[in-house]
């Protein structure tokens, strides 16, 4: 059994909006092991980003979070004050976001912004912080770091900004790195660079990493374990090989099939998942995927099944796992 | 497709933007977004245009639709040179040439209901004579893209991304066009929705004999939908070929690295293939490198690449490449 | 503690699931395939709300803005019916009842000519509100057209139009207003003309900014692709989409105009006696303010609460129409 770094129990997050309450995350349990590279995948609005932001308490005022425990490194985060949260943000937990430009202050130099967390959290002197900042830039593959430290964010290209963000997130030697769609805004060739960098840093520092993405290709190339979310719930979780080669949930199967395979150009049609995700202001009582599922049964519309072990550390929340549903299993094309 | 006629012929297209970053004439920079691009699209085929952001692929699409005026070159549509036509002379072509936009969140006017978004082009081009006829046609179009009557009087913000994109497709189809520029029509959508949009596009292509210029950075989707593909880099077309020919015999180093950078949704393949990871960023188009535009990131680059711009040459039937050191 | 209770309220208690995977489920029919009819997808369950309906919903929840609206409605009712419910006219003098304090016959008392102050305040509301709303409406039309054209056409047209704006705004507006009043005589028409000469500047600048920020959005390009003319794009897409912020500005223009009218009348170059506006009433009372403070009090209070109410409405509208707060 691996040691758990982050253990989240029954996390629920609601948003108060003008039209009513949106149930963005609807009671999920998950954990991040020490030293693992976890991927959280799902479509927009499935709650994957909200989950991480809830843990970090970085949501806007309209959000309400409830849980039965968010254990990080032995401390229950949900009982801690905001002051404690600030002391671990950017320190024990590093974060990278989709758009680095919104996280970098255009009025300060990259150096200033890199040194700030080091001075606050690690109590380094200005000189030490500057030295460490330069080292970090060098580490993330930015050449000529001394000169770069004096530049402003707008002088950096998109890929370089993301590198600088990674340097910032890693500078305090975090135990957990949360990367929220870090490569979505980047071009493929730059994305490849960043993923390569993240993989190397992961090996070097053995930081546990949670990568949130909608791109299964990104998951396949870097993650060791995957959580698939849909409609504010976890549909399936398991090691990356299990998820890609032995998917057990119709949603996962649908996701994998809607990506064209790396074969020849064929006249064959792609298999899309019909319909649209559920409205989480009014979530269905049963499985959120039932309305789009090719093997949905009557019971799926009535109740949401719990996650059920289908293999080693591999679980799926699907009624097909009920003994009486064996007749439907055959209809599921993997 | 080889037998069908050439519907669109783009010759040495150049689109330059003037960028102001200071006072006077010295503050005006010229940005060559598209620099000498030539290709042909035959009727009924899908021509895929791939490249990274800033390579000029969107500008090519918009210049063809005369949203931008080209600075040089020729655009011939169905035998007619449309390059210098003014908006009035071009009006009949607006009906034949349509566009599907990348971002379904910004491409639909948030203040108009679906009935108006899809109905406006009908009234504008006098394809319907009265309101009843217009309503009927709007309903037909809405059904064609898989939406329901209930959706007709709703506003864009009430729809999901995929539904919005279908509304965008219905608007483009309203005028019974021949040619559609699909400008990254799926890149803003979720994976499970992308396949649906692609299927709709393919279905309509067969039903109405449509010709597509499919602009995308997603190589696997381009491979799936296109008959021929052109690869762009920094305003230049660097390689054009039949789709299978291109994906199996890549000759340009940039094409190779672009393909190899694309993430593959298969852990074993993704981990065990050796990737060519390009170093550095795309140079600024305001100040492009001399000679070959790709030389600053190319592992094969040498002296000649810095001085001589490689010309497109045909290496096998229908396969053209611009490189001094083609693979 | 209070905030904690609020947090609890929005979480429905988790009900134990009806069935779990561990249960022996005896009802076999539950494992039959779900009919397509039961798979309701693509259905929008939320009620259809337009932008304006949505804004109204938000505004309704703003108590200050609603109070403001009620006050303004009461003011308008006072302006229309106030002079009718009393037997007096605004200029009817009655020397048997001069300088009375508020009483049963004269609710607000009388002035030095024995004119009924309630009727005069109500009559003043007519003038003030008319000036306020008319000035704002005229300014909106001029500002939207001027700013819209300037922003959309851009280039040298924009340059010239904006320099004209700069020149007008360089002259102190009070100077222009006073000159016009002196030139055209003191009546409501000239107040309106004076206000309109200078007031549209702010609106025009704001509309131009709005148009500039949205004119390159995809929906404007999409309108061009379906063949709409520039003027159609401006009126059908750009102006409606910038209407929210424009309406907020215009709402704030109303109290400003009312204030200017009162100010001009107060310094004696606005509406002249015996016609009563709030400003002239306040001016009239100035001489005997120590003896009869109620003569000053009522018009001053009327001005103040109208200004408060309109500013509250403006603030409420700004929150309700703010696109950033809209999801």
Give a verbal description of the structure.
The complex is a heterotrimer of chains A (334), B (327) and C (327). Chain A has 334 residues and is an alpha/beta fold. Helix content of chain A is 32%, strand content 23%. Chain A is built from twelve helices and 13 strands. In chain B, strand 11 (313-316) and strand 12 form a beta hairpin.
Features:
heterotrimer, A: about 325 residues, alpha/beta, 8-stranded mixed beta sheet, 5-stranded antiparallel beta sheet, 12 helices, C: mainly alpha, about 0% strand
Physical arrangement of strands within the biggest beta sheet of chain B: 6-7-8-3-9-10-12-11
Estimate the strand proportion of chain C.
under 5%
**Helical run tally of chain C:** 11
* Large-scale geometry of chain B: globular
Mean pLDDT of chain B: 90
Task: Let me know the CATH homologous superfamily of the domain at 74-81 and 117-325 in chain C.
Answer: MetI-like
Calculate the terminal CA-CA distance of chain B, rounded to whole Å: 28 Å
Shape of chain C: flat
Q: Which two protein chains have the largest interface (Cβ within 8 Å of the partner's Cβ), and how many residues from each?
A: A-B, 47 and 46 residues
Topology:
The complex is a heterotrimer of chains A (334), B (327) and C (327).
Chain A: E1 4-17, E2 20-33, E3 37-41, H1 48-56, E4 63-66, E5 70-72, E6 75-76, H2 82-88, E7 93-96, H3 100-103, H4 110-121, H5 126-139, H6 145-149, H7 158-170, E8 176-180, H8 188-205, E9 208-213, H9 216-222, E10 225-230, E11 233-239, H10 240-245, H11 250-257, E12 308-311, E13 314-316, H12 326-329
Parallel strand pairs in A: 3-9, 3-10, 7-8, 8-9
Antiparallel strand pairs in A: 1-2, 1-4, 1-5, 5-6, 10-11, 11-13, 12-13
Chain B: E1 6-20, E2 28-42, E3 46-50, H1 57-64, E4 72-77, E5 80-81, H2 87-96, E6 97-100, H3 114-124, H4 131-144, H5 161-173, E7 179-183, H6 191-208, E8 211-216, H7 219-225, E9 228-233, E10 236-242, H8 243-248, H9 253-261, H10 267-272, H11 303-307, E11 313-316, E12 319-321
Parallel strand pairs in B: 3-8, 3-9, 6-7, 7-8
Antiparallel strand pairs in B: 1-2, 1-4, 4-5, 9-10, 10-12, 11-12
Helix pairs in contact in B: 3-4, 3-5, 5-6
Chain C: H1 2-9, H2 51-60, H3 63-85, H4 117-153, H5 155-170, H6 173-184, H7 188-214, H8 218-225, H9 230-266, H10 278-285, H11 293-321
């Amino acid at each position: 059994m691996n040691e758990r770094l982050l253990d989240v129990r029954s996390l629920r997050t609601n948003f108060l909006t003008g039209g009513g309450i949106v149930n963005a995350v609807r009671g999920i349990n998950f954990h991040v092991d020490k030293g693992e590279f976890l991927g959280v995948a799902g479509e927009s609005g499935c709650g994957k980003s909200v989950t991480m932001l809830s843990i970090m308490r970085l949501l806007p005022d309209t959000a309400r979070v409830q849980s039965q425990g968010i254990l990080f490194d032995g401390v229950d985060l949900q009982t801690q004050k905001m002051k404690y949260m600030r002391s671990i943000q950017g320190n024990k937990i590093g974060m990278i976001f989709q758009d680095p430009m919104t996280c970098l202050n255009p009025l300060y130099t990259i150096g200033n912004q890199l040194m700030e967390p080091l001075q606050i959290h690690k109590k380094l002197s200005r000189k030490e912080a500057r030295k460490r900042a330069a080292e970090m830039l060098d580490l993330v593959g930015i050449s000529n770091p001394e000169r770069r430290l004096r530049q402003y964010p707008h002088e950096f290209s998109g890929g370089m900004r993301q590198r600088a963000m990674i340097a910032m997130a890693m500078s305090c030697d975090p135990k957990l790195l949360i990367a929220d769609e870090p490569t979505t805004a980047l071009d493929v060739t730059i994305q490849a660079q960043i993923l390569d960098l993240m993989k190397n840093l992961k090996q070097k520092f053995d930081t546990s990493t949670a990568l949130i993405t909608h791109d299964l290709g990104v998951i396949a190339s870097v993650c060791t374990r995957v959580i698939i979310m849909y409609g504010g719930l976890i549909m399936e979780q398991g090691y990356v090989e299990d998820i890609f080669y032995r998917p057990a949930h119709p949603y996962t199967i649908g996701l994998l099939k809607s990506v064209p395979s790396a074969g020849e150009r064929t006249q064959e049609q792609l298999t899309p998942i019909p319909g649209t995700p559920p409205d989480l202001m009014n979530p269905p009582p049963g499985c959120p995927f039932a309305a789009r599922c090719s093997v949905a049964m009557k019971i799926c519309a009535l109740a949401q099944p719990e996650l059920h072990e289908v293999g080693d550390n591999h679980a799926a929340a699907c009624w097909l796992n009920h003994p009486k549903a064996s007749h439907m299993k055959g209809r599921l094309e993997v | 497709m080889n037998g069908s006629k050439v519907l669109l012929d783009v010759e040495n297209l150049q689109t330059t933007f003037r960028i102001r970053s200071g006072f006077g004439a010295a503050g005006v920079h010229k940005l060559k977004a598209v620099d000498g691009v030539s290709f042909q699209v035959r009727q009924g085929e899908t021509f895929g245009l791939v490249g990274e952001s800033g390579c000029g692929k969107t500008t090519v699409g918009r210049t063809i639709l005369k949203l931008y005026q080209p600075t040089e070159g020729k655009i011939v549509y169905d035998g007619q040179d449309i390059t210098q036509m003014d908006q009035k002379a071009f009006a009949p072509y607006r009906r034949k040439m349509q566009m599907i936009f990348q971002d379904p969140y910004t491409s639909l006017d948030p203040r108009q209901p679906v009935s108006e978004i899809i109905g406006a082009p009908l009234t504008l081009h006098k394809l319907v004579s009265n309101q009843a006829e217009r309503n009927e046609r709007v309903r037909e179009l809405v059904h064609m893209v898989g939406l329901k009557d209930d959706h007709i009087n709703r506003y864009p913000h009430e729809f999901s991304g995929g539904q919005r994109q279908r509304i965008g497709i219905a608007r483009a189809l309203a005028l019974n066009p021949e040619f559609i520029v699909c400008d990254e029509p799926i890149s803003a959508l979720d994976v499970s929705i992308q396949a649906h949009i692609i299927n709709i596009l393919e279905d309509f292509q067969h039903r109405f004999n449509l010709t597509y210029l499919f602009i995308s950075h997603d190589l696997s989707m381009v491979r799936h939908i296109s008959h021929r593909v052109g690869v762009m880099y920094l305003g230049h077309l660097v390689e054009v070929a039949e789709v299978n020919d291109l994906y199996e015999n890549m000759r340009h180093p940039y094409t190779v690295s672009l393909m190899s950078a694309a993430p593959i949704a298969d852990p074993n393949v993704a981990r065990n293939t050796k990737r060519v990871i390009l170093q550095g960023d795309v140079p600024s188009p305001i100040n492009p490198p001399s000679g070959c535009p790709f030389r600053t990131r190319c592992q094969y680059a040498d002296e000649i690449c810095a001085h001589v711009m490689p010309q497109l040459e045909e290496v096998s039937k229908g396969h053209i490449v611009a490189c001094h050191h083609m693979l | 503690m209070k905030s904690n209770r609020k947090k609890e309220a929005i979480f429905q208690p988790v009900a134990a699931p009806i069935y779990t995977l561990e249960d022996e489920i005896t009802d076999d029919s539950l494992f039959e395939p779900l009919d397509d009819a039961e798979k309701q997808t693509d259905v929008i369950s939320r009620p259809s709300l337009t932008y304006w309906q949505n804004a109204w919903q938000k505004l309704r929840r703003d108590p200050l803005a609603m109070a403001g609206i009620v006050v303004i409605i009461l003011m308008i009712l006072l302006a229309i019916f106030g002079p009718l419910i009393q037997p007096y006219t605004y200029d009817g003098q009655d020397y048997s009842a001069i300088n009375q304090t508020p009483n049963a016959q004269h609710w607000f008392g009388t002035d030095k000519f024995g004119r009924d102050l309630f009727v005069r305040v109500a009559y003043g509301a007519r003038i003030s509100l008319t000036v306020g709303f008319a000035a704002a409406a005229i300014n909106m039309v001029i500002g939207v057209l001027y700013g819209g054209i300037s922003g959309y056409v851009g280039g040298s047209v924009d340059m010239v139009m904006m320099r004209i704006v700069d020149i007008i705004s360089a002259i102190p507006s009070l100077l222009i207003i006073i000159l016009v009043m002196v030139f055209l005589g003191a009546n409501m028409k000239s107040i309106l003309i004076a206000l309109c000469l200078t007031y549209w500047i702010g609106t025009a600048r704001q509309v131009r900014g709005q148009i500039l920020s949205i004119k390159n959005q995809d929906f404007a390009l999409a309108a061009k692709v379906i063949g709409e003319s520039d003027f159609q794009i401006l009126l059908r897409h750009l102006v409606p989409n910038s209407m929210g912020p424009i309406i907020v500005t215009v709402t704030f223009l109303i109290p400003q105009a009312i204030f200017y009218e009162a100010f001009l009348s107060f310094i004696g170059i606005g509406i002249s006696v015996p016609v009563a506006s709030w400003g002239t009433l306040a001016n009239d009372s100035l001489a005997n303010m120590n003896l009869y403070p109620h003569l000053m009090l009522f018009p001053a209070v009327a001005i103040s609460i109208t200004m408060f109410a309109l500013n509250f409405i403006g603030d409420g509208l700004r929150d309700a129409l703010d696109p950033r707060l809209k999801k």
